[in-house]
Amino acid sequence: MNYRHAYHAGNLADIFKHLTLAHLLVQLRDKDTPFCVIDTHAGAGSYDLRGTEALKTCEAQSGAFAFAKLEPDAALAPLQEVLAKWNLGISFGKDFQEKQLRFYPGSPAIIQHYARANDRLLAVEKHPEENKKLRKMLSPYFNAQIHQRDAWEAMGALIPPPEKRALVFIDPPYEQPDEMEKAFTAISKAYERMAHAVFALWYPVVDDIAVASLKEKFASSGIPKILCLEAEFSPRKTLRGCGLILINPPWKMGEKLSEALNLLQPLFAESSAPAELSWLKP
Ligand SMILES: C[S@@+](CC[C@H](N)C(=O)[O-])C[C@H]1O[C@@H](n2cnc3c(N)ncnc32)[C@H](O)[C@@H]1O
User: Fold this and answer.
1) Are the CB atoms for 47 and 130 separated by under 8 Å?
2) Helices 12-28, 253-264: crossing angle, 10 deg rounding
3) Is the N end or the C end of the chain the one with fewer CB atoms within 10 Å?
4) What is the model's pLDDT at position 156?
5) Is this prediction's pTM over 0.85?
6) Which has the higher per-residue pLDDT, 248 or 233?
7) Rounded mean pLDDT of the chain?
8) Best residue for ligand 1 mutational test, from 2, 5, 174 (most atoms within 8 Å of Cβ)
9) What's the order of all strands across the beta sheet hosting 241-247?
10) All domains in the chain, ordered by first residue
11) Is the CB–ligand 1 distance for residue 151 below 6 Å?
């Protein structure tokens, strides 16, 4: 486990996955029934974009900083709102100045922002140091539970939660060659136990054959209602782009995400291919 998200926090892949996550949470909050979010690979929780790790890669320049320069819009607002909470006084669009953005909220911070008092976050992070930072970040919130255990084992133990509604957010580092396979197996088993939960799996676009095989596995599974979003943003780099597989996306989520992806398109300027949204299973 060598991966440290601090080197990549706020990059384009984060913007893509976190804007989607924030949209899902906004929609979950539309109904009164409490929900539970299981964040299987939660990371450290929040990141300092002026920290040594972030400055070493400067990945946030083409991600969070470019995102902040986009004019405010309803389709971008779910993530802009969380960035504004973590960076008091920030302006978006033409009034944005680089000095206004320092802290980048990771997935548990975004989930916690949208969780109401009776919603719950179960955050799983196996790495001891990352887990310690996560615990500190979430310590003020009584409705957040932190687990230091293996994500795939935790999915077996924590799903289904007692709440009637759940979102399972799965964001592995893909350090091991079998992680796509593990993700597919864990989701298939969890789906059998909670078929109405929303599942969101992030994947990198590095190896076309591996990505095609992952999508084919979902497409030929017995699971209906699977939406897939994919964007290419750096055609000349190893991580060319990324995607998200969404099982049971909420009503009209496809339209909302399509609008959001259109607005993100200027950030994908190195690529000539437009971001794609398609149903693997309608
Ligand atoms: C891509 S980062 C997560 C970023 C976070 N989801 C976010 O959006 O802010 C992946 C995290 O998974 C953790 N991790 C790796 N293998 C794991 C496993 N088997 N179980 C739980 N956590 C794991 C890593 O330590 C790392 O912090």
Assistant:
1) no
2) 150
3) C
4) 97
5) yes
6) 248
7) 96
8) 5
9) 144-147, 120-124, 35-39, 165-170, 198-205, 241-247, 226-232, 276-281
10) 11-47+110-281 (3.40.50.150)
11) yes
